[in-house]
Amino acid sequence: MAYIIPMIPFEMLVFGGAGDLSMRKLMPALFHLHCDNRLPIHGKVYCLGRENLSKEDFIQSIFDMHQPLFAEQKEKVDSFFERIHYIQFEALNIESYKKIKTILSSDTELARIFYLATPSSLFGPISQNISLADLMTKKSRVVVEKPLGHDLASFQKINNLICDVFQESQIYRIDHYLGKETVQNLMALRFTNTLFESMWNRSYISHVQITVAETIGIEGRHQFYDQSGALRDMVQNHLLQLLCLVAMEPPSNAEANTIRDEKLRVLKALRPIKDQDVITHVVRAQYKQGNIQDVNVKGYLEEQNIPQTSTTETFIALKTYIDNWRWAGIPFYLRTGKRLHNRYSEIVIQFKKVPHLIYPSSVGIIEENRLVIRLQPDEGIKFKLMSKTPGPGMNLVPVYLNLNFAETFNERYPDAYERLIMDVVRGIPTLFMRKDEVEEAWKWTENILNAWQELSPPLKTYPAGTWGPTSSIALIERDGFTWHEDI
Ligand code: BG6
């Protein structure tokens, strides 16, 4: 069933319009929204880029990149491309802004969205120029993409420049993981079912695992990636946001700030990994040449434009704790990496052993309950229970209650950007990060970065196509647990 939402007139300016994010993520998301009739008829998208391209060339490159998608709904393609415009643009030149002002609508009721899909070093100058050229309307919003800085100080610097022009309520800081259907379902699961809340704590849960595994490498993003690494690129934002949603207290309502307040409390309670703890609680590694699903792939140091001496981590696994009443003493294991064996993201809630066994060991090994929330692909929820096999005697085996969203709802899963774009248009900030959340996440991350710098722990390696270095397996096995890898 289609969503029923009011159509809000808007125009969107995509800075970095011919760049990777715009081409790979925003254009297909807008096409889906267009096909689902969720965009108002006159909603226009201006892609602003440095390249000197004609509208036809620009459209052709979008078309070439997403041919199978456009082939699915041929009849919608022409009307979609009528919305899309390309304008050659210099982000640091005020004349470019004056030029677009003459093209934009004079309707001040229109939501005007400035989508900054550029390096974050341009966020400040672009915001200033938007203001100088008087492009703001009373319904203006600015969307900024990660990386939001390199550390706390650089985040604050960038943020202050944006805040000189836009108010906090107009700033939409994207963490696209929050727009994923299954991530929102995690909240629905926790807060609309009585079943889980009473057990969602240290008395019943033994530990939590969050894995975001990717098979892709750095995809031509050498410059950005080599200066970031997995900790900054994935943990500081996506994995910490997932951790917050798993660990937060039930909010009293679904208002943006109520939810953000609860997430912030989790980040504040997150135990810093400092000094020597970085050696025992964190594993960092880089991929070497290997084989993924029968394809040979290069090692990180062989990737184009990566310095031979690079020590950037493409994999990280860590153990952390949340120092509050609910989670005291319960480890949270996080891991993410590129060029791993399989692409999948999931959250595993591992319950404790039953307190007392009434059966002899001959009935089978009694495994603990386990809730697996699969974020992608094959989105769904599995719950492991013990069950008796049919027949005489008593023989117990683990079985799964399996909710596969695709089969259950028989609907296409919208990409995170589809939802996030619509939320910006409608002015709903719930799935975007507030300034203090980003700051707190950077503070926590900086402890690890500082300890790495001070102690230079060894950088491990792993062959592409594996699950990472053996020390990441040891990290969890030392505590008597194993990573869940049910592919
Ligand atoms: C981005 C990271 O934020 O998330 C990328 O910069 C990563 O390195 C991507 O590949 C993963 O997103 P998804 O939606 O494909 O899991």
State the domain count. Answer: 2
Beta-strand share of residues:
15-25%
Radius of gyration: 24 Å
Largest sheet: 9 strands, mixed
- CATH class descriptor name of the largest domain: Alpha Beta
Instruction: Tell me, rounded to a whole number, the average pLDDT.
Output: 94
What is the H level of CATH, i.e. the homologous superfamily of the largest domain? Dihydrodipicolinate Reductase, domain 2
Q: How many distinct helices?
A: 16
Overall geometric form: globular
Q: How many E strands?
A: 18
Distance between the termini: 30 Å
Strand order of the largest sheet: 16-15-14-13-7-12-11-8-18
Helix content: 25-40%
- SS-based structural class? alpha/beta
Bound ligands, named by name, code or SMILES: 6-O-phosphono-beta-D-glucopyranose
CATH topology of the largest domain: Dihydrodipicolinate Reductase, domain 2
Low-pLDDT residue intervals, each spanning 5 or more residues: none
